[in-house]
Design brief:
globular; mainly beta
Length: about 120
Amino acid sequence: QVQLVESGGGLVQPGGSLRLSCAASGFTFSRLAMSWHRQAPGKERELVARIGNFGGSIDYADSVKGRFTISRDNAKNTLYLKMNSLKPEDTAVYYCQGVSQGRYEYWGQGTQVTVSS
């Protein structure tokens, strides 16, 4: 059974930085294509960034390009999202997702990121 556990969220001032982590277990991590999504209050969940099984095929939402960096460490079974120059509109619950064989989806429980002065 795949388990994904996010951590690293919190309260940060505008312009600040955070690094989110997503620890995976119960599956061979390199067999999962991974991504970060977020959902703000009253809005639909949206894709933030995604990364291929071995660190290639990286894509970002236009709203975070140049500020966020997705990465993974397959030896540590961990996905990361480094977030710089945070804005109030980045406030949301951030979720990691793993996809196996292009169709089986797994989600973490989410971690809250609040950007406010």
